[in-house]
Amino acid sequence: MMRNVTRAGALFIDLYEIAMLRGYFELGMAERPATFSLFVRRLPPSRNFLLACGLADLLRDIAAFRYDDAQLRYLASLGFPHDFLNFLARLRFTGDIRAMPEGAPVFAEEPIVEVTAPIAQAQALETLIINRIGLQTMLASKAARVVAAARGRAVVDFGARRAQGFDAALDGARAFYIAGVAATSLLAAGRAHDIPVAGTMAHSFIEACASQSEAFRAYARLFPRTTLLVDTYDTIGGVRDVIALASEMGADFDIGAIRLDSGDLDALSRQARRLLDDAGLAHIRIVASGGLDEARIERLAAANAPIDMFGVGTDMSVSGDAPALDIAYKLVEFEGRGCMKLSPGKRSLPGRKQVFRGFHDGVAAFDVIAREGESSSGVALLREAMRAGEALEPSPSLEQIRTHAREAIATLPAGCRALSPSSYPVTISGALARYEREVMSKIAASSQPIAAMRVAASCR
Amino acid sequence: MMRNVTRAGALFIDLYEIAMLRGYFELGMAERPATFSLFVRRLPPSRNFLLACGLADLLRDIAAFRYDDAQLRYLASLGFPHDFLNFLARLRFTGDIRAMPEGAPVFAEEPIVEVTAPIAQAQALETLIINRIGLQTMLASKAARVVAAARGRAVVDFGARRAQGFDAALDGARAFYIAGVAATSLLAAGRAHDIPVAGTMAHSFIEACASQSEAFRAYARLFPRTTLLVDTYDTIGGVRDVIALASEMGADFDIGAIRLDSGDLDALSRQARRLLDDAGLAHIRIVASGGLDEARIERLAAANAPIDMFGVGTDMSVSGDAPALDIAYKLVEFEGRGCMKLSPGKRSLPGRKQVFRGFHDGVAAFDVIAREGESSSGVALLREAMRAGEALEPSPSLEQIRTHAREAIATLPAGCRALSPSSYPVTISGALARYEREVMSKIAASSQPIAAMRVAASCR
């Protein structure tokens, strides 16, 4: 399957980045070393942690990053001059990338990715990297909540139709799987990522058939262990049709589950369970779907509604309660000098960093954001992912990432893993705090004395 | 530029649709005529209307719809049998499509697209059509609010980085342009759709340069009429640097605008305007950005803040306040027989339909959802878009669609065009209401007597 970068290519970039590249080029700065850091400024109020995701796609995009002739002609049409376009034509990524592994829980202000490269190369990736990591991290983080709410019952992704576009559906299915979702309904995602696929029938099939019983009978014959959708006309009537079919088909009856897709899922699942059990069909499982989110799933699970599997669509696929992350990609170092902006509410931590996670009795107790090269007793989370433009092999398989996510989430404090808001202690190392003050003073001493000092005084 | 259908192809489909296709195939129903209707059940509370969008992409996808060998091998790996895969290999769309033109305001329950085709063909499009039309319609509808709030000031799309994926950014830029947005920052979108592009500099350029003044000087020389970002360290300090540069450069100073990206945009824009005016720089315009949505823009515009242009990112790009539509694609007719589901809260109107819009003195006064073939005094909104699998030419240009949207929105009642909630009268024709009752009675008389009558009694 072709990846997106083939389609939008290196033109998945905002005009202002190309303009800045030209600025660097004209000022002779393009090859000078810079580090940019990707991080989330604040978690959404309804997220206790984020699950890092999207690195594999990002590394593939970066390895393929280059401008083709047609793209360069488009840039020429915007007025960019010949010598600069020649520079762009040769632009490849030759830098280093350190990143949180996919499936790692991360918190606000922690670098998820740090890119160290000639500034033109690192700047060119801005829109791409924010979009790639931001989307998959957001969707994996949402799915982790849905999976937690289901308390061990399987969750299936039904969201392709409502995802915000084809990529969001495809990449979302991968992110959901990493977060513990069992399967996806989307065949393109099943094929692209080798994820289990699931799904059975829609109401239209039942309506097209002469009767619901005929539709059920056809499916029972064609698809062993299938799931029958029972709510087209009336849920309990649908359950009775399934039971009637069981007695009609006898030993040939081999249905795996029924699906409830509307109404009071708690009450209906209990009625359906009782009817099925009374008919000797205790092995038939119950799938619930229809406007589910983690809060509804948690209520159903907490009430012990006899639901064996949840099909979750829209709300998970668009991260309905938090459909964007406050994620930024900021210059933190240029030619060895720490950089930061001081705009209100948008401060960034200067310099290359590392994040250490401390554990007590196997439970994550605190994170420390430190300068790169500092040592600490915790586990260092940022790892080398690309060196001199080459991805470090072997990259983990999707199953390995999924296992890592499950194990890493399990080390978080219980409050952090719950749906209700809970905070986790993230601190800045002494060395980083000193460096931040030093950088601020230098900015104050150079171009913006009055402003920078005013801001510095109001900082932590 | 390759389109998405090339990438995910006909596998942008859920497993249950393929399973139903097999059901139709095995039951000998696959070629029998069906009509499916795409509509939004309820508008989001913060939308007074939706702007239909995405039809051009949909028609292109449908014309290209087919399974290639690799996709068929994947389906074989899922257990689908040879004769059915042969059927899929030959599957092409040969049906008819009637649709609201792009840029038409639409309301709840009104068909946006109606597909009439052999049922297997029409069913196969379900996930594709919901995703394509749903996303672009959602984004165009959001942008229409942002444009209205700006009261004639230009709005520029800065949202590519936070859009939910590459498609969402690319297709979003097109939808925003249709809704009246002036330009996009995303070069891939500018190139793909021939939309104006805009953008200047980020904070990183200023931080990388030895000083803000140096960064401004470089841009002023390289990019005539550029916009300088003034808030990296302190907004008013940045404005003073622009003014100092003007006096330094004299006649060579040719800056178009400054951009404020943080802080109290109302107060800062007034201070900046005064400083610029006092320095004889009344021609320099002010661009505002940073977490803007239609409510903030409306407040700034209502207060007459001296802002000439708004850069809008995240909230518009993900339709933050309503990140999904309750959009469905439902079987409404099979072999000439009306179909509907009766699931609570998810009822669909049976049969092929037409929507008429009535006007009083040039202002839209009411819509009537009628049966196809009914005549009415209003304007018929659904038009033939594809006949026997061939798109009807010529399709309108993006500029024509944009003009149509502007003119059609202008005919809506003022309350409808405002940001605060307002309802618009949409009724069902007498013939459609009778047909609905007739279909319900038939369902009641056939497979589901008790259930259907119970639901029918509670319907309008």
Automatic annotation (TrEMBL), chains A, B:
Post-translational modification: Transiently phosphorylated on a His residue during the reaction cycle. Phosphorylation strongly increases the affinity for substrates and increases the rate of nicotinate D-ribonucleotide production. Dephosphorylation regenerates the low-affinity form of the enzyme, leading to product release.
Reaction equations catalysed: 5-phospho-alpha-D-ribose 1-diphosphate + nicotinate + ATP + H2O = nicotinate beta-D-ribonucleotide + ADP + phosphate + diphosphate
One Pfam short name: NAPRTase
Superkingdom to which the source organism belongs: Bacteria
EC number(s) given by UniProt: 6.3.4.21
One GO cellular component term noted in the UniProt record for this chain: cytosol
Domain Nicotinate phosphoribosyltransferase C-terminal: 380-433
Enzyme class: ligase
Pathway note: Cofactor biosynthesis; NAD(+) biosynthesis; nicotinate D-ribonucleotide from nicotinate: step 1/1
Biological role: Catalyzes the first step in the biosynthesis of NAD from nicotinic acid, the ATP-dependent synthesis of beta-nicotinate D-ribonucleotide from nicotinate and 5-phospho-D-ribose 1-phosphate.
The protein's name: Nicotinate phosphoribosyltransferase
